[in-house]
Design goal:
Elements: H1 7-18, E1 31-36, E2 39-45, E3 51-60, E4 67-75, E5 82-88, E6 98-102, E7 105-116, E8 119-126, H2 128-136, E9 139-145, E10 151-157, H3 161-170
Antiparallel strand pairs: 1-2, 2-3, 3-4, 4-5, 5-8, 6-7, 6-9, 7-8, 9-10
């Protein structure tokens, strides 16, 4: 679940930083997009006046440039908790779910929740131990099974993950 940022804290911090003599405060931007090697941190303002942020990476086909996977990490209630959201291609065996591994070790399993026109969505909480592996690792393996029973394995780079995670938690 994406949680909003408490804007009152930002406003208070800006007021302290600006000090006296500032005629008006600049509003926070409606969107923020920053890149950390292979990961992107994106925030958008919501209708409720808060800001929703996540970090993500997308994989595209070399031919045709079609997206085949989107991996998003959302911060949890504390800095050692996160949620993983995967948008996968169609044609997968949904009961099989998705397995996330690093170095051959299974870190977590994600079940599909629905399919939308952009792809099928799988979600899972990221345990603290898995989050540490994400920070220390070089590559994640995303394992799925096609409807025909064939394995589908996609590799996701972890380059820039720690910097993006740190920034996400600072927002």
């Amino acid at each position: 679940m994406i949680t909003g940022l408490d804007l009152r804290g930002i406003v208070a911090a800006l007021a302290l930083w600006a000090g006296p003599g500032v005629a008006q405060q600049q509003p926070a931007p409606d969107t923020l997009s920053e890149t950390y090697t292979d990961w992107q941190v994106v925030c958008q303002s919501t209708d409720a006046g808060t800001r929703a942020c996540e970090m993500s990476q997308q994989l595209f086909q070399q031919e045709g440039g079609r997206r085949v996977l989107r991996v998003a990490v959302q911060k949890g209630e504390t800095a050692d908790r996160a949620g993983l959201v995967l948008i996968t291609p169609f044609g997968l065996s949904l009961p099989e779910g998705v397995v996330v591994r690093s170095g051959g070790e299974t870190l977590l399993e994600a079940g599909f929740t629905t399919c939308l026109p952009v792809g099928c969505i799988a979600r899972a909480p990221v345990p603290a131990a898995a989050l540490q592996e994400f920070k220390a690792g070089e590559m994640l393996e995303i394992a799925m099974t096609t409807m025909g029973g064939s394995p589908l394995l996609l590799s996701v780079s972890l380059a820039g993950f720690t910097a993006a995670w740190t920034r996400l938690n600072d927002l």
